[in-house]
């Protein structure tokens, strides 16, 4: 018996990274999965994104947990396509109880253009809107909606990090505000809406040349090992990053009945990154 038996969850950005971890972790607790991902690169992004075989692997891993999986290759920036993908998933699996709006990009370092701004806003902000809004006609009373923010949303603007970095920071800040206000609108139906805000996570979004250069601007071509020497500066705890599973544990908690009265929360999974950077205002 799992905590989420017979429930259905939609997860965007499910092909790899945090999204795959969330999908598989929810499946391990008995949830059937609607897995969405673009499975293609974006012009304004500065590192490769997932491929169809990555989404297939997520489905395989989730199905090993004994649940059903419906996959769709879809660009979360495209409203009509997302609405259709979610509706098709609900038709296939019969209901919708959990929404994890997770898909995101973080174009940093060399190669940023104004397209990086557009792609980051449209993926990290509009994409969250699209996945959640497409799900609202289908979610049952008592459902759980979870949006992926970032420690960046808690620390303010990053206008010195180029158009992609600035757009990422802005998008995550607005997602936090959106979750706060939407939670009030859905509370009468016992639908909970929360945001999770991770620090550095051990995924492809972190492990790429652009982020390495952000953390080691003193080096022309920093390696992963050299960047990892600087990663702990983000956290109060002496670690370079957290693992996707650390975030997935929070997703599973927020998806289930153990958090039935938690809504409108901005949950930081940041190893003390916020308290290290922001003074107490008691």
Structure description:
The protein is of the alpha/beta class. It has one domain (8-204, 243-268): Rossmann fold (3-Layer(aba) Sandwich), CATH 3.40.50.720. 43% of the residues lie in helices and 13% in strands. The protein has ten helices and seven strands. The protein has helices at residues 17-28, 52-63, 79-93, 114-135, 151-155, 162-186, 209-215, 224-228, 244-255, 273-277, and strands spanning 8-12, 32-37, 69-73, 98-101, 144-148, 192-198, 266-269. It has a seven-stranded parallel sheet, with helices on both faces. α1 (17-28) links the parallel β1 and β2 (32-37). It comes from Mycolicibacterium vanbaalenii (strain DSM 7251 / JCM 13017 / BCRC 16820 / KCTC 9966 / NRRL B-24157 / PYR-1) (Mycobacterium vanbaalenii).
Describe the secondary structure blueprint for this structure.
Blueprint (H helix, E strand, L loop, with lengths): L7 E5 L4 H12 L3 E6 L14 H12 L5 E5 L5 H15 L4 E4 L12 H22 L8 E5 L2 H5 L6 H25 L5 E7 L10 H7 L8 H5 L15 H12 L10 E4 L3 H5 L5
Parallel strand pairs: 1-2, 1-4, 2-3, 4-5, 5-6, 6-7
Helix pairs in contact: 1-2, 1-9, 3-4, 4-6
* Strands ordered across the widest β-sheet: 3-2-1-4-5-6-7
Question: What gap, in angstroms, lies between the N and C termini?
Answer: 43 Å
Q: In one word, what is the shape?
A: globular
- For the record, the CATH architecture stands as 3-Layer(aba) Sandwich
As a percent range, the share of helical residues equals 40-55%
Order of H and E elements: EHEHEHEHEHHEHHHEH
GO molecular function: oxidoreductase activity, acting on the CH-OH group of donors, NAD or NADP as acceptor
Family: Belongs to the short-chain dehydrogenases/reductases (SDR) family.
Organism: Mycolicibacterium vanbaalenii (strain DSM 7251 / JCM 13017 / BCRC 16820 / KCTC 9966 / NRRL B-24157 / PYR-1)
Pfam families: adh_short_C2
């Amino acid at each position: 018996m799992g905590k989420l038996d017979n429930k259905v969850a939609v997860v965007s950005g499910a092909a790899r990274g945090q999204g795959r971890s969330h999908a598989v972790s929810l499946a391990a607790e008995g949830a059937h999965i609607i897995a969405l991902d673009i499975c293609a690169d974006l012009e304004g992004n500065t590192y490769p994104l997932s491929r169809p075989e990555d989404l297939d692997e997520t489905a395989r891993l989730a199905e090993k947990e004994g649940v059903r999986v419906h996959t769709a290759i879809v660009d979360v920036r495209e409203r009509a396509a997302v609405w259709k993908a979610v509706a098709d998933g609900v038709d296939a699996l019969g209901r919708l109880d959990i929404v994890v709006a997770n898909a995101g990009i973080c174009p940093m370092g060399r190669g940023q253009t104004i397209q990086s701004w557009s792609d980051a806003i449209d993926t990290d902000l509009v994409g969250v809107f699209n996945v959640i809004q497409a799900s609202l006609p289908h979610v049952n009373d008592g459902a759980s909606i979870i949006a992926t923010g970032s420690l960046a949303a808690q620390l303010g603007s990053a206008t010195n990090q180029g158009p992609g970095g600035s757009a990422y920071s802005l998008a995550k800040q607005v997602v936090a505000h959106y979750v706060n206000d939407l939670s009030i609108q859905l509370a009468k139906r016992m639908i909970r809406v929360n945001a999770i805000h991770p620090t550095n996570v051990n995924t492809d979004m972190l492990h790429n040349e652009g982020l390495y250069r952000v953390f080691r601007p003193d080096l022309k071509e920093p390696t992963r090992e050299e960047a990892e020497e600087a990663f702990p500066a983000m956290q109060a705890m002496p670690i370079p990053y957290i693992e996707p599973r650390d975030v997935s544990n929070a997703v599973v908690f927020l998806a289930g009945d153990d958090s039935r009265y938690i809504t409108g929360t901005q949950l930081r999974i940041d190893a003390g990154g916020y308290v290290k950077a922001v003074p107490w205002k008691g």
